[in-house]
Amino acid sequence: MILQYIKNVYITFSDSGHQHPRVKTGSALAKAGLKKIVLKKVMSSLKRTPTLPPGTKPLDNQVAGHQNTDGKIGCLLHEDGTVLKPVQYPPKGQREVEFYQEVFADQMSDDKVLLQLRDLVPKFHGMVHSPKESDARFMKLENLLLDMKHPCVLDIKMGRKTYDPLASQEKIAMEIAKFPPAKNIGYQISGMQTYSPSTGKAQKFDKYFCKNLNEESIVFQGFGKFFSLDGVLQKEVIKAVIVGLKEILEWFNKQRTFHFYASSILIVFDGDASSPLSFRTSTSSSGLKGSVAENCCNGDTDSIIENDFSNVISSDFVDTMTYSQSEAVNPKVQVRMIDFAHVYHMPEEDENYIFGLKHLIDDLHRLLKS
Ligand SMILES: Nc1ncnc2c1ncn2[C@@H]1O[C@H](COP(=O)(O)OP(=O)(O)OP(=O)(O)O)[C@@H](O)[C@H]1O
Ligand SMILES: [Mg+2]
Fold first, then answer.
1. Cα(350)–Cα(258) distance, rounded to whole angstroms?
2. Are 122 and 144 in contact (CB under 8 A)?
3. Residue 190 CA, closest ligand 1 atom number
4. How confident is residue 285, by pLDDT bands cut at 50, 70 and 90?
5. Exposed site from 47, 63, 250, 270, fewest CB < 10 Å?
6. Are 89 and 66 in contact (CB under 8 A)?
7. Strands (DSSP E) found in the chain
C-alpha cells in the first residue's frame, strides 16, 4: 500500500516537469539522483509527527545533537521547567541512563569523587515515559537555561578522540572527518547560539559553521563571536567560564572511574544586559570550592527530595522523580558537562578529555588577552 503510494507520488512528481537544478535531462545518473531526492521527500512526508509527552514542547534553545525535526524527538522543555532528553537507541541510550543513575543513586555513595560529579552535570530527576509512545523514554534533567532571558549557548565536544573503544573503523573515520583539528586541540564546537541586544535577536550557528573553523579561528571567530554582545567581548563572562572549566579539570585530575568520549561541556550565559553576572558555584556537600561568586547559589545535593508532580503531569507518565530545591537562585553563567552516551568505566586518568580541557582553558586565556 505504502509502496504503491510512493510509486504514484513518484510518477506524479516526475511527470510534473519538476527538475533538480543540477540535473541534466537524459543522463542515467541524474535520473537516479532525482529518484533518490523524490523518494527522500516522500518518505519524510510519510513520517508522522510523534506525539510529545503532555506538558512539553521542543527546547527552543537547543544548539546541537538530535533535534526535533523529520519526525524525530529531540530535547524537550517541560512546563515544570525541566528538560526531557530522549533515550537514544541501545546501547547509547542505556549507557547514558545508567551513568545518571549511578551518579545520582538514592543511596549516598561514600565515594567523594563520585559525589562531586553531581555538581558538574545537570541534576537528574529520574526517568519519565510518554503514555502515548510506548517506546519513548526520557531522562528528566535540570534545565541549564532556566530563568535566562536571552540565553547564549555553546556546546563544546571534548577530546582528541570522539569515538569510543567499541567504535568500528567506519565510525572512527567518520568522527575524525567531522573536525580533523580536534586531534591537535582536543575539543570542537558542536553548535552555538548568540544574542544581539541591539536587534533583540538570537542567532544560531550550526555544525556546518563549526566544521569550517580551524585551530585559530575557533578561538577568535568561534569563541570571539560567542562571548561578544554586539561586538563587545564579555571578559567577565569568559573569566567566570574559565573558573567553571578549572573546577571540571580539578575533578578530572582526581577521578579514576570514567572515560568520557564524545561528551560535551555546555556553556551558557544570559545575553540580557540588565542582569548582573552571577555564577553557580559548587556545593558545600561536594567539598569543591566555589569561585566567582556574586549572588551565587548553593546547589545543595543533600536536599534532594521526593516531589509530587501529579498536578503537572499524569501519574502514568512518571516512573520515579526527585526534585532538588537547589535551583532557587537565577544563575547567569553555567558551565556543565552533558551528553554521556559514550561513558565507560576505566580505572585510569582520562587523558583524552584532560588534554582538551587544558587546551580549551589556554585558548580562552588567549582570547581574554586579545
Ligand atoms: N540540561 C540541559 N539544559 C539545557 N539544554 C540542554 C540540556 N541538555 C542538553 N541541552 C541542549 O541539547 C543539546 C543536545 O544535548 P545532548 O548533547 O545531551 O544530546 P545529543 O547530542 O542529541 O545526544 P546523544 O549524543 O546522546 O545522541 C545541547 O547542545 C544543548 O543545546
Ligand atoms: Mg551532544
1. 7
2. yes
3. 29
4. very low
5. 47
6. no
7. 56-58, 76-78, 83-86, 124-129, 137-141, 151-158, 187-196, 201-205, 228-229, 232-233, 258-260, 264-270, 304-306, 322-324, 333-338, 343-345
And the C-alpha cell for 61? 534553545
pLDDT in tens, 163-221: 999 999 999 999 999 999 999 999 999 999 999 999 999 999 999 999 999 999 999 99
Of the candidates 45, 96, 105, 103, the residue with the CA atom closest to the CA atom of residue 75: 96
In the chain, the domains with their CATH numbers are: 2-46 (no CATH), 147-369 (3.30.470.160)
Q: CA-CA distance, 41 to 52, in Å (whole number)?
A: 23
- The amino acid at 198: S
152 touches 63 (CB < 8 A)? no
Q: 73 CB less than 6 Å from ligand 1?
A: no
Q: Which of 94, 339, 342 has most ligand 1 atoms within 8 Å of its beta carbon, as the pocket-test mutant? A: 339
